[in-house]
Amino acid sequence: MSSKQLAKFLKPWSVWSRPWRKREQMGGRYLQFWIIIMAILFLAIPYVLTNRLADWMDVSRFDPATSLDNAIPFIAWTFIPYLTLYLYYPAAILLSPRDDTGRKQLLILHQILFVVAWIIYAIFILFPSRIHIREQVPAELRDGEGFWGFFYGDLMFQIDMPWNAWPSLHIVQSLILLLSIQYWMNKRGKYSRAMKIAWVCWLALAISITTTKQHFVFDLWTGLAVALLSWYFLIKPAFIWAEGEEAEEHCADWDEISELQASG
User: Fold this and answer.
1) For residue 135, with 0-12 CB atoms within 10 Å meaning exposed, 13-18 middle and 19 or more buried, which class applies?
2) CA gap 173, 42 in Å, rounded
3) pTM of the model
4) Is 35 within 8 Å of 93 (Cβ atoms)?
5) Quick check: helix, strand or coil at residue 129?
6) DSSP for residue 73
7) Domain range annotation of the chain
8) Residue 152 near residue 142, CB atoms below 8 Å
């Protein structure tokens, strides 16, 4: 994809124009705060709706289970690394550069996250796979008994219906966000021990999606494929484009749109 095609594909949605105009407010964090709101609207709420819709349909069109899914043991405490997914979203927002280049990259990152997620939500509806390996979780935990029963029976299994299979959003989104953080750290010359620890933590998260019986191994591999393809063919080239002269002109267009909205 050429830089011109990329610019056209990633042209910011009009909803960004007003927060872009106020980007220097809140100590330069205004746009980041707005992105959190957008993530709730465009990621979290559609996920809940599609998950409930798939559960209501109750039709499994594809079973990706293999013998490996049965061989992998259920490990209750891996619920903890499983939950760390929700640290990657604020980490990427807070660690992104607060200059205009970093802000454009942050917008690009989230627009692609939204589009990729919507495609996956469509897969959940069109090619649903019931995650029947949840039955490998001990019955008392599924019923909410004991310490870990609260996390599985009363929390996870009540929030997530067993239809969020492939590709694994846990893998897709956490890996894309971590690769983005690594890109920014490398640009700052700050690839440190903390990043190495972050990758170890991400590996624990990747394993946990199978040991909590929330996902098939197939979901893991397809999630990896989607994340890496998105990073290398969309996000990374777009990040590089955001650092060039064309992006400066593109940014000027955003400011012009904002000024027109403000005066109108």
Assistant:
1) exposed
2) 14
3) 0.91
4) yes
5) coil
6) P
7) 3-252
8) yes
Task: Walk along the chain (264 residues) and give the pLDDT tens digit of each residue.
Answer: 555 565 556 666 777 878 888 888 888 888 888 999 999 999 999 999 999 999 999 999 999 999 999 999 999 999 999 999 999 999 999 999 988 889 989 999 999 999 999 999 999 999 999 999 999 999 999 998 989 999 998 889 989 999 999 999 999 999 999 999 999 999 887 767 889 999 999 999 999 999 999 999 999 999 999 999 999 999 998 898 888 777 666 556 656 655 555 554
Look up residue 32 and give its amino acid. Q
Element (H, E) at 42: none
Q: How far is CA 203 from CA 84, 133, 161, 188, 245, in A?
A: 11, 21, 24, 24, 37
Q: Is the dihedral of CA 144, 150, 155, 157 positive or negative?
A: negative
Rounded to whole angstroms, how far apart are CA atoms 93 and 197? 19
C-alpha distances out from residue 51 to 55, 165, 195, Å: 6, 10, 33
Q: H or E element: which one contains 38? A: helix 30-39
Say if CB 214 and CB 131 are below 8 A apart.
yes
Region of residue 137 (left: phi > 0; alpha: psi -120 to 50; beta: else): beta
The first and second tokens of residue 59, run together, are 């039709």
Left (φ > 0), alpha (ψ -120 to 50) or beta: where does 120 sit? alpha
Dist CA 126 CA 116 (whole Å) = 15
